[in-house]
Every structure is written in structure tokens, then in C-alpha cells.
Write a structure and sequence with these properties.
Blueprint: H1 2-12, H2 17-30, E1 50-56, E2 61-68, H3 74-84, E3 89-91, H4 92-101, H5 115-129, H6 134-139, H7 142-145, E4 150-155, E5 161-167, E6 188-190, E7 196-198, H8 203-208, H9 211-221, H10 226-241
Parallel strand pairs: 2-3
Antiparallel strand pairs: 1-2, 1-5, 4-5, 6-7
Helix pairs in contact: 1-2, 2-3, 9-10
The structure holds aspartic acid (ASP).
Length: about 240
């Protein structure tokens, strides 16, 4: 509610959608309740590796970061990549160096860790060791495992649509795994002619389905309305591939 109100207030006062989206997402990243920023889900090694992206519908400007471990608000770094670099996506150490140079707030990686996420990782690891132990799998609360990515889409009074997404990805991810959230066209997309999309779901399928862009493309080329396009992609295309 705080996040929605903060973003809405900016829009109501004639502010721009970039500020509304980043403000709303900052609040969600700072809250331990969501899988983004503080309280993000943990990797196999027990660390938080964060992904985020933002896209502007008027000119399809975009910025993204992947696998950062010490940036307090990854969405602000994604915005800085969009506004202050010639690139769209930065990752890992390089992205963190860029954060330092652009005065984006850094924190000790332990800032992101919460008891709830540590417990969720422990349960998943335990279940990996004893896959037939049905009580272990029943114990895993799905909301701790893969839900809680945050996103925001805003349309401002100037007619501009902006979409942003921020996440810790999926519990127990390894090998520098990156999901759909920082990938423009997969987890985030905005185009004033059609729509803005911020996705949450099983990232591997969202990447393969190029979900966010597919929804916009259906509206643009097949003249589907937003509800039908989103429904077709989320309830038919992705499940047919085996995802959700
Ligand atoms: N889409 C995110 C990812 O795969 C996770 C999520 O939305 O829950 O990284």
C-alpha cells in the first residue's frame, strides 16, 4: 500500500513515470517482505544476487543490472545504467564499479539476509539431499521459494508508460544464474504504443517465451487487447512450455 501510494502521489502531482516506478520499487526493495533488495531469496551459497531493469515507453530507453551483491536498490542502478551509460545491461563486479562511480548507495552484502530466507534455503537444500522425504517438500512454503519479485508499471500525465522489475531471482540458484527480470523483453518491457509489462514467474520460461515483449507484440501486430494478450501468454503459452 505504501509503495502504491508513493508512486501514485508522484503521478498525481504531474511527476514522471520513471520517478513513480523507481520510488514504488525502492519501497518494496527496502521492505524485507519481498523478494527484492532486503529480504531477497538466497543463492545456493547463501548470498543475495540481485537483478533489476527499467524501460521507458516513449523512446524505449532501458537499463538493467544482473547479479549485483552490494547495491542497496538495484532499480536505482538500472536507472543509472539507462541514464548515465551507453549500455543497456551491466553485470556483477562491473555493475558494482559503475554504482560506485555513479553514487548509487552500496551496502554490506549481509544487509540483504533475513532469517526467513535462510530457513527457506535450508529447507530446499535439505530436500535436495532427501528428495523422497515428502515431509521436507511439503514443508517448503512456495512463497519463500519463488514468489515476491517486485514490479511496477506507471502511466504519467504526459502519456509516458514506464515499467520496472527487481528481484533476488529463485532460491538455491547457482552458477551466476540470471532470470528474466533484468532482461528487456522477457521480464520487463514498455512501449507507449502498446503497454508496459513487469513480469513475475519462472524466469527460464519467461526468457524462452520472451514474455513481456510477446504481450506487447500481440497488441501491436495482432491487435489483441491487453487482457487477451496477457491471458494468452500467461495461461496458454507458458504452461504449454511447462512453466508457470
Ligand atoms: N522471475 C524471477 C526469476 O526467475 C522470479 C520470480 O518472479 O519469482 O528470477
Amino acid at each position: 500500500e505504501q509503495a502504491v501510494k508513493a508512486g501514485h502521489e508522484i503521478l498525481e502531482n504531474g511527476g514522471n513515470a520513471i520517478d513513480a516506478v523507481t520510488k514504488s520499487i525502492n519501497i518494496l526493495e527496502d521492505s524485507p517482505l519481498f523478494n527484492a533488495g532486503k529480504g531477497a531469496v538466497l543463492t545456493h551459497d547463501g548470498t543475495a544476487e540481485l537483478d533489476a531493469s527499467i524501460m521507458v515507453g516513449s523512446n524505449r530507453d532501458a537499463g538493467a543490472v544482473a547479479g549485483v551483491t552490494n547495491v542497496k536498490n538495484p532499480i536505482l542502478l538500472a536507472k543509472a545504467v539507462m541514464e548515465n551509460s551507453p549500455h543497456v545491461m551491466l553485470s556483477g563486479k562491473g555493475a558494482e564499479e559503475f554504482a560506485l562511480e555513479n553514487d548509487v548507495e552500496l551496502v554490506n552484502p549481509s544487509y540483504f539476509l533475513t532469517k526467513r530466507r535462510k530457513k527457506a534455503l535450508e529447507k530446499v537444500l535439505q530436500d535436495e539431499v532427501t528428495p523422497n522425504n515428502s515431509s521436507a517438500s511439503v514443508d517448503i512454503d512456495l512463497s519463500d521459494y519463488k514468489f515476491g519479485t517486485v514490479g511496477c508499471v506507471a502511466l504519467d500525465k504526459h502519456g509516458n508508460i514506464v515499467a520496472g522489475t527487481s528481484t533476488g531471482g529463485m532460491t538455491n540458484k547457482r552458477w551466476g544464474r540470471i532470470g528474466d527480470s533484468p532482461i528487456i523483453g522477457a521480464g520487463t518491457y514498455a512501449d507507449n504504443e502498446t503497454c508496459g509489462v513487469s513480469a513475475t514467474g519462472w524466469g527460464e520460461f519467461f526468457i524462452r517465451g520472451v514474455v513481456a515483449h510477446d504481450i506487447a507484440a500481440r497488441m501491436k501486430y495482432s491487435k489483441e487487447n491487453l487482457a487477451d494478450a496477457a491471458k494468452q501468454v500467461i495461461q496458454t503459452e507458458i504452461p504449454e512450455m511447462g512453466g508457470d
